[in-house]
Each structure stands twice: as structure tokens, then as C-alpha cells.
Design brief:
- The protein is mainly beta.
- About 10% of the residues lie in helices and about 40% in strands.
- It has a five-stranded mixed barrel. It has a four-stranded antiparallel beta sheet with strand order 2-6-7-12, with no helix packed on it.
- Strand 4 and strand 5 form a beta hairpin.
- The chain is globular and about 40 Å long.
- It starts with 5 loop residues before the first strand and ends with a helix.
Length: about 160
């Protein structure tokens, strides 16, 4: 993986065709593990075609607002009591915890970043952690399970969930 492992903006990520599972909310911190997040217009992908990340974590700290939408269900939590402006980030994807099509998070937070693992890869072809109606699984099940179960979670992400760990 390239030298850049911690990137302080999630604006270059496209998660519309990504997969997530076991997202974590701890206090005002949200952690989303992603497979197949797209990246474009970024030093990691300066070309004109989307490239895809096999595994990464997206973290939000000091979350002010969290909206979660899937199907007809809409949940939202205003964590500071009033809208104080700022940019809203939209993250999406397919939730592997449920058998539903698309989910979206709308988030306002003081700090946002995405982080790679030592085993993270970026390529032009998409990553599929399970069979889909149109594409077969192309990742090892054991690796996918280890990632989504937190076995590969970097220490700095763990410490956001359990301070002092």
C-alpha cells in the first residue's frame, strides 16, 4: 500500500457501490468498515476512471448529526440540539448485516478520515465480498469475515471506540 494510510477527508470516497457491516456508534464516534469503496480525483487515483479499495475504515468523531436511511425507514439523531451549519457528508452502500438494497448515512462531524490497512489494495476492478445477482464473490471469505469482525482493525480505530485501549 502507498505511504498514505490515514486520509483526513472522506470527500473523495464513493461508497454507493460499497459494502459495509457491523458499523459502530460509540458516544459521538461513528466507525464504518467498507469493502469496495471507490476513490477518484485523489493522489491515490489521479486517472479519470474510478478505482476501488478492498478494505478501509471510515471514521467520524465528535458527530453533531447522524441520519440513517434504508428503504422506507428513516432515523435521525441531532446530537447537539440544533443545526450549527457545516458540511453534511453522505456515505452509502449495501449493508451486509441485512438483506436490503441500499443504505445511506448523512453525517456532520468535527473530524472525519478514512484509513487503510497494511493489506489494503486499490484496483480498477470492483471487489465483491459475497455473490451478487450479477457478479460472483471475488474475495476470500475468511479475509472478509476477519475484516468485518474487527480482527484486522488498526489500534487507532480501536482506541476511538474504547479510549485508553
Amino acid at each position: 500500500m502507498k505511504d498514505i494510510e490515514l486520509l483526513n477527508s472522506v470527500s473523495h470516497l464513493d461508497t454507493s457501490e460499497a459494502f459495509f457491516k457491523n458499523f459502530i456508534i460509540a458516544g459521538r464516534t461513528l466507525i464504518i468498515p467498507y469493502v469496495n469503496a471507490g476513490i477518484n480525483w485523489h493522489p491515490l487515483n489521479t486517472g479519470d476512471q474510478m478505482k476501488y479499495i478492498n478494505k478501509c475504515y471510515v471514521a467520524f468523531q465528535q458527530v453533531k448529526y447522524l441520519g440513517y436511511y434504508h428503504g422506507k425507514l428513516r432515523s435521525q439523531i441531532d446530537l447537539i440540539g440544533e443545526d450549527q451549519g457545516g458540511d453534511m457528508v453522505c456515505m452509502g452502500g449495501s449493508n451486509l448485516d441485512e438483506d436490503t438494497d441500499m443504505h445511506e448515512f448523512y453525517i456532520k462531524a468535527e473530524i472525519e478520515f478514512f484509513q487503510f490497512l497494511p493489506s489494503t489494495s486499490i484496483r480498477s476492478a470492483m471487489w465483491f465480498p459475497r455473490d451478487t445477482p450479477y457478479f460472483p464473490q471475488n474475495m476470500e471469505s475468511a479475509e472478509v469475515n476477519s475484516f468485518f469482525n474487527g480482527d484486522l482493525m488498526p489500534q487507532n480505530i480501536k482506541s476511538l471506540i474504547i479510549p485508553g485501549l
